[in-house]
Amino acid sequence: MARPAAPSRPLYLGPRIKRLRRELGLTQQAMAEDMGVSPSYIALIERNQRPLTADLLLRLAATYRLDMADLAAQDRDDHARRLAEALRDPLFAEIDLPALEVADLATSFPGMTEAMLRLHGAYARAGQALAEGREAAGAAPAADPVGEARRFLAARGHWFAGIETRAEALSAEIETAGGGAEWLRRNGLRVRAMPASVMMGALARYDRHNEQLLLDECLGPQRRAWQIALHIAYTSLRPDIAAIVRGESFASATAAQLVRRALAELGAAAVLMPYDRFARATQAQGYDVQGLADLFGVEWQQAALRLATLTKPGQEGVPFFLVELDSAGNVVRRIDGAGFSFAAQGGGCPLWSLHQAFARPGEVLTQWLEMPHGDRFFSMARTIDTPAGPGLPPVRRAMALVCPAQAAPRLAAARGVDPQTAAATPVGVTCRLCQRAECPARAQPPLGREILPDDYRRAAVPFVFSES
């Protein structure tokens, strides 16, 4: 690594150094030992009470194999610039705010500066939503990084040829090497299983200083393989992922990070389940999710996610809609497809077996669904357990894969049943948009319908509607 020229003025990079330390999974004590300084000195640097010297900057870059741009870039971490922009808001128009005081605040009190920036950001977004009347107009809410990331991926059909091609080549190299851990070892990186006391709440941690990937010792073989594949995706596919993210102007850094995470997961899936081989296996296995998971050494949810992204032009698989919910009904993950309507906001239909999966953990619940307009679908739902960290119980969620009824005969789980005559459960997108008057599970009346009074007659269904 070429030695950069020493900075000509003191560098106060406290927040950046603190974030770097946390990303590396290091305590102040550990970083101090690596740098040959005292823990109190690291604490002073992080609080911007000491500048980052040229010598220490060089040691940081060499010890943790960093690009100098990662430390010295003047981007969103430039607190003084961001604070000055926020303080131009008319809200502060009558307050005397000299530029020197603003700069001093950002330099000396980075934590307070960040707190103020977050509050101002929340205030600005709320004001924008009110000004545009988004709720009344039914438009998308302001500053929705999750929705922005989802739309970006959906617009491209979750297909990124560069990532898939590179991941397939990596998969072949890994298979030749005898597995991901051995492939990493040959490339100078050890994989070690460590106790919770070392992992500090992480499932996986890349120790750049000692060139090792640390994994929680309680991870099973499938989760170990997934974490190794994710590390390979984040490192070996980094240029491909960065090029895709840089090619789009996202409204927020969070949306860009969500896309980056999704692309890394797609890359990891492609490393463990190369497209062509996986696509052939789906035909042989009849889209049996558990069978595919066993064949490729992954978990049910990873095989399900791969099924939902088989969108290679000219080599598409069965179209699937995928959704993952927590026990409160919050959408954790969604991949739109198969023409299946889903409530973006508010509760879904309680008659869908996805919501009953929590009462039958680990069991795959199949169900034929019929939407109000007559469209039919086939659903497979089950619970999945996600690691919450060392010493903590896993987080239980439910995931469903839904395909159009006409494609269901290709699935082993639906073979032998005529999609048009199968007993289907009448479901809706959400109660407010479903006009099925006789639904006993209804929670709210639909839009545009008046309910009758129940002074003298109380029906078994929650609401009785007038004819007009």
Automatic annotation (TrEMBL):
It comes from the Bacteria. The keyword Ubl conjugation does not apply. Residues 17-71 form the HTH cro/C1-type domain. Gene3D superfamilies: lambda repressor-like DNA-binding domains. Transmembrane segments: none annotated. Signal peptide: none annotated. Keywords: DNA-binding, Transcription, Transcription regulation. The keyword Ligase does not apply. Belongs to the short-chain fatty acyl-CoA assimilation regulator (ScfR) family. PANTHER family: HTH-TYPE TRANSCRIPTIONAL REGULATOR (PTHR46797), HTH-TYPE TRANSCRIPTIONAL REGULATOR SUTR (PTHR46797:SF23). This is Transcriptional regulator/transcriptional regulator with XRE-family HTH domain. It comes from Novosphingobium capsulatum. The lineage of its organism: Bacteria, Pseudomonadati, Pseudomonadota, Alphaproteobacteria, Sphingomonadales.
